[in-house]
Design goal:
Length: 258
Amino acid sequence: MTLLYIVLATLAGGLLSVLIAASLTVALLARLVRNLVSLSAGVLLATALLNVLPEAFQGHASPHRLFATLLGGLLFFFLLEKAELYRHTHHHEGDGHHHDHRFDAQQAGQGGWSVLVGDSIHNFCDGIIIAAAFLTDVRLGVVTSLAIIAHEIPQEVGDYIVLLNAGLSRRKALLYNAASGLSAVAGGVLGYFVVGPWEALFPYLLVVASSSFVYVAVADLIPQLQQRMSLKATAAQLAWLAAGMGIIILVVQLVHHD
């Protein structure tokens, strides 16, 4: 049953992003991504700091070793991103970055394969994280999966917009995104069989998961929110950020109550 939960959870993010991308116009998707970036930042931070890390520290592992693992995880994901193997860009037209109008075509045309490979590795890591969370506790797996899905949707939709602007057909762009998303399922299944027997490592894997969430939120999402904007837009941004945190707090209370 746990394996089924893991497969369903790893499928959910990719399927939802493809369904959303297929059903909405590019202009509407661009506006949606801007709001989802704020929402997912709140979801990731709340999940890491209010749920996953406290769960990891409830075990018998040394706090000093866990904090060292957290530091190592942050450095690890930084190096992966430097090597362009852990890409999680949410670029879209009209994002306020004032790119040249050929930016998307150049990014997808010259580095399209590296984007897809990087996203596949990112999704594979997410699958392992989901597996470790479900193996620790089903309720923790649910909350962790929700955080990853909340982040995967704007990531995959953003990549879809880039591929469309580069001249790919909607069908091909959706197919590439779906194929990239399947690597999360592979990571989840592998994690179930490989990580399962090593229960003593679960606290450290949870800390690595938290370092991934914190790194993506702080190094990728929040910097995108640091733009000059009106007071109304800033208030909306903060509202989406708070909504993301509120969702996780509510879900944690519900699953723990159950």
